[in-house]
Amino acid sequence: MIKLMRPDKPKELEKNETSLTEEYKKTGKSVWRKDYIVKALMEMSHNKCCYCETNLTTQARNMEVEHYHFKDGYPDEVVSWENLLPSCRQCNSNKGTYDTIKDGDIIKPTDDDPRDYLYLHCFMIKSKDNALESKGRKTVDILDLNNRTRLVNPRIQIASEIDEKLQNIYEKMCAYANRQDGKQYGRSRITNGILDLLKLAQPDAEYSAFISTVLSKAKDYQETKKMMETFDLWTSEMEDLHNTMISIKLDTK
């Protein structure tokens, strides 16, 4: 989960908010499924679920408009822009009719920075405050953010792939650094490989909070970066991507 910046309310919603709210109250129709609402929410979240960061543009992962204050309990907020979030079907279902007013807040990525509440430990998302009623603990438990099949297993697979790629890049960088003849064999594979990995750790990438944490903490990445800087292979583009990665990574314990 990463911090999201909510854009201004769509102009069409400003015009139609009252009438859409009344229509929902009378008919129960899904008035929030307007193209201009869905499009704005998807752009806000980089086409990902705001909670688990799964990509919502792939097959069988349709985006659902999630109501932070659930719609049946708070019908006046059914198209209130500040109440709407982009969610995958599973997270939306997990949250269900949980009452974020009466029963306590969960993390709202447009208002809260998830890094203030969550950390990563052994592929699991944990709450910094372990109290059962803490915002972080409730978020993880209610949304089932450590579901083994749906989320933890993919994290393990991604981490394994990153480790394998990093090991290969690090070995190439060591060989490059140890050359005595001045030849630059392997330079493009090193630079392109690091760029590819850094792009996986950006806000628009799936599971970006997890990937940025794993990549930034990896010893092979840290050592490769140092050597690339020494040999003038580290570019301003890489530095920008690195800094963005650092800005969204989770703490580890």
Structure description:
This protein has 253 residues and is mostly helical. The protein contains 9 helices and 5 strands. The two termini are 17 Å apart. The strands form 2 sheets. It has a 3-stranded mixed β-sheet with strand order 4-3-5. A two-stranded antiparallel ribbon has the order 1-2. The mean pLDDT is 94. A hairpin with a 2-residue loop joins β3 and β4 (124-127).
What is the structure about, briefly put?
The chain is mostly helical. The protein has 9 helices and 5 strands; from the N terminus they run ααββαββααααααβ.
Essential attributes:
9 helices; 3-stranded mixed β-sheet; 5 strands; two-stranded antiparallel ribbon; 253 residues; mainly alpha; elongated
Number of strand segments: 5
* Rg (CA only): 21 Å
Order of helices and strands: HHEEHEEHHHHHHE
Major sheet characteristics: 3 strands, mixed
Overall mean pLDDT: 94
What is the oligomeric state here? single chain
Give the CA-CA distance, first to last residue: 17 Å
Shape: elongated
Beta fraction of the residues? 5-15%
What is the topology, as strand order, of the major beta sheet? 4-3-5
Q: Please work out how many helical segments DSSP would assign.
A: 9
Kindly name the structural category: mainly alpha
Low-confidence stretches: none
| DSSP helix fraction | 40-55%
